[in-house]
Amino acid sequence: MQIKNIAVLISGSGSNLQAVIDASLKNEINGKVSVVISHKKDAYGLERAKKHNIDAIYLNPKEYKNNEEYHGAIIEKLKEHNIDFVVLAGYLKILTKDFVKKYEGRIINIHPSLIPKYCGKGFYGIKVHEAVINGNEKETGATVHFVDEGTDTGKIIIQEKLSIDIGETKEHLQKRVLDIEHSILIKALKKVL
User: Fold this and answer.
1) With contact defined as beta carbons under 8 Å apart, do 84 and 106 qualify?
2) Which one of the listed residues 111, 129, 145, 182 is annotated catalytic?
3) Which of 6, 12, 17, 11 is nearest to 181 (CA)?
4) Fewest Cβ atoms nearer than 10 Å: which of 41, 99, 120, 133?
C-alpha cells in the first residue's frame, strides 16, 4: 500500500503535529508528514517539523490580497509536495471553498470539544474550555471530523469524552483534552488513510 503524503497546517505549538510525526515514524499510520505550513512565523510547530527534516513553511497572509489568494498559495505548496491528505492541527484560519473542493474528503480537523457543542466561529484554544466550564458541562472531549465548507460542520470521524472534575480550571481541562486529541487524531488517521 502506497504511503500517503500528509500536509499539516498549524498555528501554534504543534503538539498534535508531533503526535502525527511520531505515529508516522512508528509506522502506525499509512502516511508521512511531507510539509508543515503555518500563517504564524513563530509557531513552534515549524521547529518541530525542522527537527524531523520536514519542509516547514511560513506563509505570511499579509503578503496576499485576500484569504482566497493566500489559500491559493498554500494549494500551490501542496501540489509541489504531491500532498494526498491535509490535517488541520490547531489551524486558526478558515479554508476557502476552492481549497475544500480541491481536497474534498481528504481534509480532517481536530477540535477540542464534543461537536456540535462549543464549535464554530470564535471557539478555539482555551476559549473552548472556558465556555465548557461556564456552561456547567459534566463532560467534554475532542472530535476529529472531515472539513467541509462550514466551520466545524463536517462529518464526524471520531469523538472521545472525559468527565469534568469539580472545580477544574480551564487550563487543566485543556491539558487533559489535549491528551485525547493526540490519541484520537491518530485513530482517525488510521481509519481514513
Assistant:
1) yes
2) 111
3) 17
4) 41
Give the Cα separation of 131 and 103 in Å (integer): 31
- Count up the domains in the chain and report the number: 1
Query: Long-range pairs for 55-59 at CB < 8 Å and ≥24 separation?
Result: 55/81
Counted residue by residue, the chain has a size of 193
Q: What's the CATH number where 123 sits?
A: 3.40.50.170
104: alpha, beta or left, given left = phi > 0 and alpha = psi -120 to 50?
beta
**Among the listed residues 119, 172, 165, 170, the one whose alpha carbon sits nearest the alpha carbon of residue 139:** 165
Measured distance CA(66)–CA(36) in Å, rounded: 21
The C-alpha cell that represents 176 in the structure block? 487533559
Based on DSSP, count helices (H) and strands (E) in the chain, helices before strands: 6, 7
Residue range(s) defining the domain that contains residue 143: 4-192
Reading the chain (193 residues) residue by residue, the pLDDT tens digits are 789 999 999 999 999 999 999 999 999 999 999 999 999 999 999 999 999 999 999 999 999 999 999 999 999 999 999 999 999 999 999 999 999 999 999 999 999 999 999 999 889 999 999 999 999 999 999 999 999 999 999 999 999 999 999 999 999 999 999 999 999 999 999 999 9
Q: Is 172 a catalytic residue?
A: no
